[in-house]
Amino acid sequence: MQLSKIRIKNYRLLIDAELEVDPRTTLIVGRNNTAKTSCFSCIGNVLEGNSISFDDYPLLMREDFYNKFALFMEKKLSYEDLCKQIEVISIDFLVDYSLEDPNDNLGALSPFIIDVDVDTTTALIHAEYRLKTDEKTLRALLESSYYKDGAFSPNEEAHNVLADNFGNLFGLTVYAINPNDLEDKQVKSQKELHDLFPFHAIPAERVLGEDDTHNNSLSSLISNFFDMSEGDLDPDIAEEIKRLRAIVEKANNDVQKQSDEILSAVVNSSIGFGYPNIEELTLGVTTQLSIDDQIKNQTKLSYISGAANESLPSSHNGLGYKNLIKMEFLLAAFAKDIEKRGVACVPLLFIEEPESHMHPQMQTAFAAYLEKFLSTLSTVQIQTFLTSHSAHIANTMEFAKVRYAQKSNAGVIYKNLSTFAQANSDNVDFIRKYLTLTKCDLFFADKAIFVEGASERLLLPDMIGKCETGGVFGSCKYPLSAQYYALIEIGGAYAHKFIPLIEFLGVPCLILTDLDSVADRVSKGGKVVKKSVVVSQGETTSNETIKWWVRRNKDLPENDTSKIDLTEITSMTPDDKTRGKCHIEFQMAENGLCGHSLEEAIRNVNRKYYDLGDSISEEDLEFKGESKTDFALNLIYEYPDYCVPEYIKSGLIWLNNQRVLE
């Protein structure tokens, strides 16, 4: 059995968020402040039975919350209706047990299966923080805040009283619900829910030092070894642990006896006041020595050099290795606890930002081998939830395991990338391979810029800075340079393959590509071929992204092969260049001429730097250098006050003005 879906309502930014859960690993990615940690927090609070505070209640829901209580205190809303109408914090768990043998004992899931339909293979569990304070007590608590001299007169303290007492007013109730009849439900205990979903959370704020006894993972592991019964020990280490115990027990007895004798003699020899005398009482000393306590509490991790056979303290090792080692210890302890339960359950593991202090290769290795590592620890399948800001982890995971947290003014929703993959099977392989090869941070950006090649990638940050200092972006508080944009080099032949993904993620995206004008020419062999020509001689474009865009604007199928006239492209309006949250720009006419690549456009608007006069043709703009990268670097180094081509300015202004939240 496995958890297949979670639905959270009214918890912080999670107004109504549904998370589809992978059978093994679910990776939640997204920009900062998209409720990734809140998801773990909500689940953890419910499974632990913790109370919640008013800080957990959504800002969007508070005005309605206050109004409902005001109506209740004014006696315009009954207590029963108040309980029904208040939007409460809740979470649904959907458990799939379709793969279980009908004759198997479903263990901890059994209390939550209340339907009698043998064909039903899902269990629905609902937990909510409902109003638990009775009407009389509630009115007494709020009376002074809503009434003055017997008249209804709410004061500013009313909201504070509700907020301060929120955790006491609302308590957790757990229901088993018949998935075939949502009105059919039974109250269950929080312990039954906890037994079904044993969980362990590894937060991002991990204390990695071995000197802090409260966070000393190795000491905890050793202590567990001493406290476990022999039957619970891993067979691979059982004999070694028993041998260690025997040595410790013998050492304890020997040291105890000798220390008692020596210390008793020392104490008796030190007494000089005649009391107690030898005829009445002899002093003795008994010390409570425990070598196993020393091993438990004073064992610290060290690193031994294979060549010199010398050891160094844990503090001398890198934080990335410490992070990895600590997580391994914690995972091993959790897996061992699951094995000891001996009853069918659905273990949940939450790891927040595992990439802390890890270099990119280590992050990639962690993501690639996590599932294999967990399978070696436990025979029970553990469902793992990860949050990450690492492009290396996100791009290593399979698409089907990734959930993108998208934030809007209405709250956060989780988008399942496997849904995108199924709907875009023709190009998802290309996207996956590209992301794996380039490790781009598209999943974490507020906005995206797709560029043609290395020249654009090198020049764009500098051009954005020029637009800002030149006042192109106007007086906005946070210009594009202060926004988190992902700059992605993809080329005109492939940029359009990413547009469906951009539309799915809902990220504002600018595509800067080349006009790539071509015309029919007869080759030496007599065949008609498309040849790159200056724009004034061009008949169409060889740029696949521009052609894809025009076909979409004309509602033509993607495989349409009809010729697109170049004048159709160059006459596109700003509206024609915008589709939803995507905008495309390419070279346009400036100073009477139009280049068909970035380099030509730059030469056109910076003629003085390239010995080009006013009376030149488009042929004179042609870039004949061998390296476009050198061209870009020389431009920044030699001519720092160069002019930015107009088509790039237009695109950057559009992107700068796009709102991230809607």
Please tell me about this protein's structure.
- With 662 residues, the protein is an alpha/beta fold.
- Helix content is 39%, strand content 19%.
- α8 (217-227) runs antiparallel to α10 and α16 packs parallel to α21 (628-638).
- The longest helix has 36 residues, at 235-270.
- The radius of gyration is 34 Å and the shape is globular.
- The relative contact order is 0.09.
List the helices and strands and how they pair.
Layout: E1 2-11, E2 14-20, E3 25-29, H1 36-48, H2 59-73, H3 79-85, E4 90-96, E5 122-131, H4 135-146, E6 147-148, E7 151-152, H5 157-164, H6 166-169, E8 170-178, E9 181-188, H7 190-196, E10 199-202, H8 217-227, H9 235-270, H10 291-298, E11 302-304, E12 311-313, H11 319-341, E13 348-352, H12 360-377, E14 383-387, H13 391-396, E15 402-408, E16 411-416, H14 417-423, H15 428-438, E17 447-451, H16 454-469, E18 485-489, H17 495-505, E19 509-512, E20 517-522, E21 528-532, E22 540-541, H18 544-553, H19 566-570, E23 578-579, E24 582-585, H20 598-605, H21 628-638, H22 646-657
Parallel strand pairs: 3-14, 3-15, 10-13, 13-14, 17-18, 17-19, 19-24
Antiparallel strand pairs: 1-2, 1-4, 4-5, 5-8, 6-7, 8-9, 11-12, 15-16, 20-21, 20-22, 23-24
